[in-house]
Design a protein that fits this description.
By secondary structure, this protein is of the alpha/beta class. The protein has one domain: Rossmann fold (3-Layer(aba) Sandwich), CATH 3.40.50. 26% of the residues lie in helices and 19% in strands. The chain has helices spanning 5-8, 19-29, 78-90, 107-115, 150-157, and strands at residues 34-35, 50-51, 65-69, 93-101, 118-122, 141-146, 161-165. The strands form two sheets. A five-stranded mixed beta sheet has the order 3-4-6-5-7, with helices on both faces. Helix 3 links the parallel strand 3 (65-69) and strand 4. The relative contact order is 0.18. The structure holds S-adenosylmethionine. Residues 13-17, 35, 37-39, 45-46, 52-54, 56-59, 70, 72 line the site of S-adenosylmethionine.
């Protein structure tokens, strides 16, 4: 089978977060301090105070404050979630929302639910923006919350889908 070249290129990373999700993230966190994997320094899609782009290698930088993470999808996506878990447990990341997918069988899912306290399962598939959205959305999305304010996540995301509590998720970090 021939794989379309766009799927193998950097362009396939560019599935940009739609505005209604970013609005909910801002409602939940009160603002975004860092997008650790941004599409652009000069015209970033996420309205964060700081952005790391590919050339910075966001994985090798400190992640301070309130983070929104929509990582480059791929087989090694769990590196982004391990990094987030490490930064959160170290206290550099104060709260975070992650946009990823419902893939319960993966290590990435287990890492994320190990540090999240709530997950939102959107009632519809998400149409990403940008050149990475070459074939529409093809997976079931999920949004993960790392933080102390479950009520704010609930209020911000309940219009997008069902909110599930992750048993033990927060307790592992906030002793
Ligand atoms: C799924 S897109 C998300 C873009 C944007 N954060 C958003 O939510 O709309 C992932 C982005 O990560 C960038 N990227 C890939 N590898 C990276 C790296 N090592 N460090 C920082 N950014 C990276 C890609 O260029 C791409 O724009």
């Amino acid at each position: 089978m021939t794989v379309p070249s766009a799927l193998l290129s950097h362009r396939s990373d560019e599935h940009l977060t739609p505005r209604f999700i970013l609005d909910a993230v801002i409602d939940c966190l009160g603002g975004i301090d860092l997008d650790p994997c941004s599409n652009s320094r000069c015209c970033p899609n996420v309205p964060a105070a700081r952005h790391f782009i590919r050339e910075d290698d966001g994985l090798s930088q400190p992640w301070d404050g309130r983070v929104f993470l929509n990582p480059p999808f791929g087989r090694d996506v769990d590196r982004w979630f391990l990094k987030l878990a490490g930064e959160y447990c170290a206290g550099r990341t104060s709260a975070a929302v992650v946009l990823w997918k419902s893939a319960t069988e993966t290590k990435a899912w287990q890492v994320l639910t190990g540090v999240s306290c709530q997950v939102c399962f959107p009632s519809h598939r998400i149409d990403f923006e940008g050149p990475g959205n070459i074939s529409g959305s093809t997976f079931s999305p999920a949004l993960f919350y790392l933080g102390r304010d479950r009520g704010r996540f609930l209020l911000a995301f309940e219009g997008i889908g069902q909110i599930w509590d992750v048993p033990g998720g927060c307790r592992r970090v906030h002793r």
